[in-house]
Here is the input.
Amino acid sequence: MRQSTTTTGGHALSGVLFIGNRRGRRLIQLYVGLALYGVSSALLVESGLGLEPWNVLHQGLAELTGLTIGVVSVIVGAAVLLLWIPMRQRPGLGTVSNVFVVGLAMDGTLALVPEAHTLSVRIPLLTAGIVLNGVATGLYIAAGFGPGPRDGLMTGLHRRTGRSIRLMRTVIEVTVVATGFTLGGTVGVGTVLYAVAIGPLAQLFLRLFALSGASGGSTVVAEGPPPRAILRR
Here is the structure.
């Protein structure tokens, strides 16, 4: 009887350690992914060939206010998160972390990377930025700690209005690109390439980095509207 109790206790301890290690790995994956997302966005800024939709808005607001694009990203992310309240969206650790980590990583990278003046440098920066953005997206979504605030806005509007996610995403991103461009944000070939490439890249790296058991004992790859929606980013 004592041996059985000891064995059971050993299994329980092993289970606790396994869960703890898995959660620790997911946390590392989350913050590495968010930091790399900020780095990738900074590379797109430095390329000067076009930004992803939300950063067109962030850059335009930065031009208007004199704040850094990273600080503007944090402010806009926090403002968007407030819009979750009437839509009854529930943020996760990844949602709140997204607001701060991406903007800080972006500003840090922009301070370190020298300005690029020739196409021979700007094109590789653009390419690296888009690919790294796909890697970062796969990392932080697969960690399973919740969608970013902007993706949650999209899925929240989808639930509240009954309109398709595709329509909500299109409306939101056309609005932010148009507003950002009007304020001085950079729209160019990079914006188009990002729009075309980010879905397949995110899907590829999400499958690569998905962790078994990150969401209710199954993989995170296709659980619920938010992850699927984010893959269209």
